[in-house]
């Protein structure tokens, strides 16, 4: 891998780590397209491992705002959602599935933009967890459903609970990759080399978080969700 490619990946991972630690999701959404162009063989293992590091650091930092009961309901929903996503990948054409799910995300963004705020109660958390598992398994974009259900909460509460949710999910994914032999030495070495960059992104998020009150976090989360869905549509239509 060239020096230029290494620098590009490092910058993408730094910005993605900062975003993940600031709004609770977005690492794969931001970094995956860049890594896919420069070093596709590192996906998805390297980014999943890096996301695990970020989410662990955020959970430790924001542990005072963690609601294990709410996160638990979301994780309960994630299990059938993940299974459904895997089945949809088998039953439906990838392009049609991705466009359908992106449209669903954009629909959620639209209603959230006009003031809809689903309360983070058991039913909504489980539903969001299922949708996140389905989206994450089928398209690798699992953040928007959880971001929408937590969109009206305090910033620290959003970051801690979404990070706890994605920490468990990332560990599950890493276990699955390891079981199938997909965590190659190349991926592990890249993860180790990029870990200082990931930590720097986490540290930088402390300064970004000072600017993110509840309303600003809501706007950023909705915007990133919309951009992620739009990128997914563009990827399926033009690439």
UniProtKB/TrEMBL annotation:
Gene Ontology CC terms? plasma membrane
| Topology class, membrane | Multi-pass membrane protein
| Keywords (A to Z) from UniProt | Cell membrane, Membrane, Transmembrane, Transmembrane helix, Transport
Localization, per the record, is: Cell membrane
Q: List the transmembrane segments.
A: 30-60, 72-91, 97-116, 164-181, 187-207, 219-238
- Which InterPro entries does the record match to this protein? TM_pro_TauE-like, TSUP
Query: Per its UniProt entry, which superkingdom is the organism in?
Result: Bacteria
Question: Which family does the record claim for this protein?
Answer: Belongs to the 4-toluene sulfonate uptake permease (TSUP) (TC 2.A.102) family.
Q: What is this protein called?
A: Probable membrane transporter protein
According to its UniProt entry, this protein's organism is: Gordonia lacunae
């Amino acid at each position: 891998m060239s020096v230029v490619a290494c620098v590009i990946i490092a910058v993408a991972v730094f910005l993605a780590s900062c975003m993940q630690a600031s709004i609770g999701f977005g690492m794969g959404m931001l970094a995956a397209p860049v890594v896919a162009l420069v070093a596709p063989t590192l996906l998805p293992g390297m980014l999943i491992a890096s996301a695990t590091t970020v989410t662990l650091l955020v959970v430790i930092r924001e542990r005072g705002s963690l609601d294990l009961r709410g996160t638990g309901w979301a994780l309960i929903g994630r299990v059938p959602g993940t299974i459904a996503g895997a089945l949809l990948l088998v039953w439906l054409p990838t392009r049609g599935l991705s466009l359908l799910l992106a449209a669903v995300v954009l629909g959620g963004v639209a209603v959230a933009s006009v003031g809809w705020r689903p309360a983070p109660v058991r039913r909504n958390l489980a539903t969001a967890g299922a949708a996140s598992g389905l989206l994450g398994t089928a398209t690798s974009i699992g953040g928007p459903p959880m971001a929408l259900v937590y969109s009206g909460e305090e910033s620290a509460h959003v970051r801690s609970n979404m990070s706890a949710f994605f920490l468990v999910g990332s560990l599950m994914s890493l276990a699955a990759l390891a079981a199938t032999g997909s965590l190659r030495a190349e991926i592990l070495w890249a993860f180790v080399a990029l870990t200082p960059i990931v930590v720097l992104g986490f540290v930088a998020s402390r300064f970004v978080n000072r600017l993110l009150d509840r309303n600003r976090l809501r706007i950023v989360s909705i915007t990133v969700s919309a951009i992620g869905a739009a990128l997914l549509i563009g990827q399926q239509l033009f690439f």
